[in-house]
Amino acid sequence: MIKNLLNLFFPQICSACSNHLSDNELQICTTCRHQLPLTNFHDDPNNAVHKILYGRVKLQQATALLHFSKKGIVQQMMHNLKYRGQEQIGEFLGEWLGELLKPMSSYQDIDVVIPVPLHKAKLKSRGYNQVDKFAKAIAKSLHAEYNTTMLVKTTNTKTQVFKDRLKRQSSAHSNFEIQNGMTLKDKHILLVDDIITTGATIEDCANQLLKIEGVKLSLATMAITD
Question: What is the rounded distance in angstroms from the CA atom of residue 95 to the CA atom of residue 130?
Fold first, then answer.
């Protein structure tokens, strides 16, 4: 009864289409859930994420949960997550991807999950890092440590989705640094981000993390641009 009253005054809506959710639906309606363009990259060692970063970053594993296309359902979800305060979307996607990765032997030795950080000015403006709850949910599924203090963004850059590829690669150069990196020595790190496009931001973060002795690096993102 209380739940019905709450839904009457504060109706739960789908994060993709904004229609009201029914009692048995969580975060995304059944129709949108069936329309989500899953990649199934976790089952493909030669997937598109690996190919984007081939020859640039040495990765143990790499995956993305969804395909991202302009004006598509995933773009709407990402917009709601980043700009409308719907952080629960990140948690929902993290739990989903975490359940896919948990039974895979190639992800069972992950020691630390680290989200790509926001610059402190952007974090203050937005109020949260859209990757945090996604990364935290994956860390929980993999029984790994979750860390937001080791990797720091030192330069405040603009949103890079759909920016010219060459400009994006240039602007994403050397924007990160490591703090107290020796505590990550010989660890297997899972770096986590929302969307991978050219891979420039990931490459920059990875170059910093791979300076740490004995580190192995893997990657997981919510989506990959088509």
Answer: 15
Q: Which residues contact 11 (CB under 8 A, 6 or more apart)?
A: 20, 21
Report CA-CA distances (Å) from 83 to 125, 130, 168. 11, 9, 21
> Could you tell me where in the chain the CATH 3.40.50.2020 domains are found?
37-225
Task: Check if the beta carbon of residue 198 is closer than 8 Å to that of residue 170.
Answer: no
The structure tokens listed for 81 are 């997550």
Indicate the DSSP class of residue 105. G
C-alpha closest to that of 190 among 44, 63, 87: 63
The 10s digit of each residue's pLDDT in 183-223 is 999 999 999 999 999 999 999 999 999 999 999 999 999 99
Question: Can you give the length of the chain in residues?
Answer: 226
**With contact defined as beta carbons under 8 Å apart, do 200 and 168 qualify?**
yes
Instruction: Tell me which CATH code domain 37-225 carries.
Output: 3.40.50.2020
The C-alpha atoms of residue 154 and residue 118 are separated, in whole angstroms, by 9
More confidently predicted of 61 and 164: 61
Q: Which helix (H) or strand (E) holds 133?
A: helix 132-142
Select from 175, 191, 195 the least CA-distant residue to 120.
175
CA proximity to 218, closest of 50, 41, 38, 47: 50
